[in-house]
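Long-time lurker. I teach an intro course on protein structure, and each term I like to show students one example going from raw sequence to a predicted 3D structure in token notation. This year I'd like something fresh instead of my usual example. Would anyone be willing to generate the tokens for the chain below so I can use it in lecture? Attribution to the forum is fine with me.
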Amino acid sequence: MKQTLDKKNIQHKINDFKRFGFTLLALSVFMYLGVVIPSETVTPVKTITLMTGTIILLGLSLIFFTRAIKYKKDLQSADE
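-- Reply from a regular --
Happy to contribute to a lecture. Here you go:
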């Protein structure tokens, strides 16, 4: 019974980390589009801020995806 709860808990963590990763990835795409789309009001400070935010969000997204992969491997090893 406890092992089943642990597996469900790990599966929930995998889903959550994937969801967080995709959300941060989508947000970073929107921030990058703010840099790429030409505008008259874009200043170098805004460009640097958007690119820094994009890089940070991509890094966080990568961390969440690697954690999801780690938990998935743990789940597969628990099944064996």
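Some talking points for your students: The mean pLDDT is 91. The two ends are 17 Å apart (CA to CA).
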